[in-house]
Amino acid sequence: MDFKQLQSFVTVVQEESFTQAAGRLFVSQSTVSTHIHQLESELNTKLILRTTKSLQITPKGRELYEYALNILELKERMIQACSIESRRIIHLGASTIPSAYILPQLLADFGRLHQDIYFIIHQSDSQGIINGLKDGLFNLGFIGMSCEDSDFCCQPFCKDRMVVITPVNEHFLQYKQRKENVLPELLREPLILREKGSGSKKMADNFLANSGIAESELQIIARVNDQETIKNLVAGGMGISIISEKAAHNFLQEKRLLAFELPQAFSERSLYLIYRKNYLLPSYVKEFLAFIGHSNL
């Protein structure tokens, strides 16, 4: 089995014609037929049922088509990765907090010193970034929770903490004036939480669990996967939330939100830099790692 055979098969399925597939691939129809026959012989199954008037893909053929698409896509990505290596591009995966509130300044500072190095950034939740690293999509990842997988090097690079945010109104300003712990009362308010898979959600869950509060006891009115949306919903009076202080910083400075501190044991967290242990990092990626190590984050 080789790439040419798979490409011929995929093209026949897409064109629903041996003749049109041959034209699209700039080969003879007999070449396409030979490729399909070779695949069928190697896999010992019929992939395409062909008559003088019609062409039908078998169930096994449909299954192979999905696999073949993935294989050919990986091949193209491999070729592109090798061909652009000289352009010194670093592929980063970043969860919400690092992507939106830390990387912009960090990359700008690094870029002033290394104008020939470029970045491609993909944002997802922390678990999505870990999965992307496993699939070889990124050189490095920035996530909001630790990863214990022995295949990865996962090290803290920045501190953050979680806070309860509320609207700015007379009701919540009265809470601010009180000296006792008001968190139990606050958590009876309508609550907006992050989605599963995020480091912020994991920290919020940890705080609630250690406070002896089950989710079933909360008045959860929404689950939102975007910090900016959460801040706007809270500022607009929809409810309260538990989010990163770094994410809330600008709204707090503008006095659009109030923040209530969580107990230190459950609020402070590290943000993590993660990469594959056995993945060969280009020299310019190592330069970026060294820069992060010397940054005051």
Please write the string of helix (H) and strand (E) elements: HHHEEHEHEHEEHHEHEHEHEHEH
Radius of gyration: 26 Å
Secondary structure class reads alpha/beta
Unreliable residue stretches: none
Count of β-strands? 11
Largest β sheet strand count, sense and barrel closure: 9 strands, mixed
Proportion of β residues? 15-25%
Average pLDDT over all residues: 89
Shape: elongated
Helix content: 40-55%
Taking the alpha carbons of the first and last residues, their distance comes to: 51 Å
Count of individual helical segments:
13
Structure notes:
The model has no long low-confidence stretch (mean pLDDT 89). Helices cover 49% and strands 21% of the residues. It is built from 13 helices and eleven strands. It has 297 residues and is of the alpha/beta class. Helix 1 packs across helix 3, helix 1 crosses helix 4 (59-83) and helix 2 crosses helix 3 (29-43). The protein starts with a helix and ends with a helix. The strands form two sheets. Strands 3, 4, 5, 6, 7, 8, 9, 10 and 11 form a nine-stranded mixed β-sheet that branches.
Topology:
Elements: H1 3-15, H2 18-25, H3 29-43, E1 48-50, E2 55-57, H4 59-83, E3 89-94, H5 96-113, E4 118-123, H6 126-134, E5 140-143, E6 152-166, H7 170-177, H8 183-186, E7 191-193, H9 199-210, E8 220-223, H10 227-235, E9 240-244, H11 245-253, E10 258-261, H12 264-267, E11 268-276, H13 283-294
Helix pairs in contact: 1-2, 1-3, 1-4, 2-3
